[in-house]
Amino acid sequence: TMQDDGVEKWVKGVCRFCGYGCGVYVGVKGEKVVSIKGNPDAQTNFGFLCVKGFLAYKSMYHPDRLTHPLIRQSDGNFKRASWNEALDLIASKFKYFHEKHGKDSVAYYGSGQCTTEETYSFNKLWKAGFRSNMVEGNPRLCMASAVGGYISTYGADEPAGAYADFEKSKCLFIVGSNMSECHPVGFRRIMRHKRNNPDVKIIVCEPRKTSTASIADLWLPVDPGTDLAVFHSMAHEIIKNNWIDQGFVERHTRITDGSKALTLEEYGKFLEQFNPEAVEKITRCPAENIRQAAQWFATSGASMSVWCMGLNQRTRGVWANNLIHNLHLLTGNIGKPGADPFSMTGQPNACGGVREAGALSHLLPGTKPVANDAWRAHVEKMWKVPPGTIDPKPGFPTMKMFESLGAENDPNKPIKAMLVCTTNPAQSLPNLNKYLKGMDDAFLVVLDIFPTRTTQFADVILPAAFLYEKGGVYGCSERRSQFTEKAVNPPGEARADLWIVAQLAKRMGHEKLLPWNEADTMKAGEKAWNDYVQITKDTGHTLLGATYQRLRESKTGLQWPVPSIDHPGTYKRYVKGMDPHMERLQKAGTIPSEATVYFYEDARKEGKANIFVRPYQEAAEMPDREYPFFFTTGRTVEQWHTGTMTMRIPEIARSHPNDYLEIHPDDARRNRIAMGDMVKVVSRRGEVTLPARITDGTMPGVLFTHMHDQAISRMCNFVCNDAVDPGSAEPEYKIAAVKIQRVSGP
Ligand code: SF4
């Protein structure tokens, strides 16, 4: 039972942390949020919350909250400023850089934590107002490879199915995801499903025996980055044993190496090199585990894969995603209840605000590329701007953007100014040492609710509102848009991002593009939302029927496609009778009326999905004599991202106050490391010093730490690799080669 703490009203909302999208009620007493409880009607969490969601409101009242704008003075100190002073300064600097150094000299770096209305507004201001595609966001660092995987395989982003498939699945293949800690409420559903149905098989593929792996029927231990060989090997077993769904493969797929079509026989021949014995040598995963995994996956009748950053944050993240899709396509495990390739997302609105509303340098709202002539023309029409306004050339992806950021007089740094919104790149970028100077040298504006490592490099700091102080729409991992009502006012002079972006637009002469320049964020939000959703009309991801009113009234939100106001939303895409877009295309004659499954968007011919034959490639940096260990990072259940909010929740800060280094007992012994010893971890890029935690939960040769610590000496990203996937431009956070040295006892 929970205490109400004198709550006077409960306001509907969404959890602020993680991409799972738990529905909440925010308890208000007077002018203050005093409690949060799970929303029992929410179809994501059915009333359950993890510790972060339950305690989120406590971060709102930490004394560190930013409550007024700050401008850096020539002596380096920050001075309190009025909103007018701060916004005028930003506008005049941005105008100056535009005139002197061109439209692409001012960048926006956003986040999967802003509401869709906010991200959409910044995106529109930059792409239509400034005519610049220098728009990026931290989702580039977490799900760009998943986007690349979905688009290259099916022609459209985001999963076909939903969380409802967890309980319908007979085999769950969880790979590159410590779901029990990173999406704990979703994992709870899987645990319950397993408890009620002991025959359901759970397979976990991970270099660590995580708490997720602890409930698995089968663990596939793999050296970081080698799992591509395991996926190939599973495909090998599936074809060799004729576990394929022949009809599905023939009707709905084509096998390709990216340039030419291949037959199933040719694919099978390619896979011979990945027989389980050969793959055991590459990966350290026992051959019999691979065989067993392939059999369970292929023959269960309803298999679902769930993955996250372990697959995406890789130099071959897109390929890893493609290979998971291959397993589903070979066995027909898509489009049926309980059968789905499902990528989880890390942030609460990475899917809604950034993927769907297209706030990356190569995208436009509606998830289509800026390079797509027809879509550009469509968006220009919707935005009522002259044809040719939007630059067809993509801007820079995140790592290149930060590499290009620097001083005005530095000819090698074309980006002179950046607005950073609700994210903390000075702690979260990989290979941090390489990027801090650029942030320091450039004109940097940071919008956040707390001082962060990034605000230390800022020229102007803008105090923002917490989600429950402004409200808006978040879209979670399962294509579900959910609404948060504004519960209370922000503290001091802190303001909602939507107001801030509209004020900036006004000062830069683009008021017409963002005609929602009003203090009431609910009213402004509705205008911005309507402006956005009209762009998605008649597409496979339409939100046209998800009006503000419906979202506000709904207890659980709506899953797109939702083409009209009487449509209930879509649980499964690509399937006749379930997907309204497919139905529409069948009526129009674009899709044959007899088709039962159809992957329909863009370049896919005959509605077929691609089974990609991808070569094996290991990580950009592998252990060697000098750097003999793998180093990998992840999250803990209590903390979130760089800890700027969760570390300010007293109960959470106490439960996980600092990060530590997980090391296998064999490695500890060989290096004379005891529990609690301080250990220096050194890569080719930087170092951290962490207390040792000796555990057989990690494989020998693999070191692990979390990514939440606030102390510079323990920030893992100094060590991590910034090499990127050539397809998605997502960096390889998950794999670095390091050496270690014991520096002191506990
Ligand atoms: Fe919030 Fe994610 Fe926890 Fe749910 S699982 S309460 S969305 S942090």
TrEMBL record:
Database matches in Pfam families: Molybdop_Fe4S4, Molybdopterin, Molydop_binding
Q: Locate the 4Fe-4S Mo/W bis-MGD-type domain: which residues?
A: 8-64
PROSITE patterns (alphabetical): 4FE4S_MOW_BIS_MGD, TAT
- GO terms assigned for molecular function: 4 iron, 4 sulfur cluster binding; molybdenum ion binding; molybdopterin cofactor binding; nitrate reductase activity
Keyword list (alphabetical) reads: 4Fe-4S, Iron, Iron-sulfur, Metal-binding, Molybdenum, Nitrate assimilation, Oxidoreductase, Signal
CDD domains noted in UniProt: MopB_CT_Nitrate-R-NapA-like, MopB_Nitrate-R-NapA-like
Q: What is this protein called?
A: Molybdopterin oxidoreductase
- What is the protein's species of origin? Desulfurispirillum indicum (strain ATCC BAA-1389 / DSM 22839 / S5)
The organism's taxonomy opens as: Bacteria, Pseudomonadati, Chrysiogenota, Chrysiogenia, Chrysiogenales
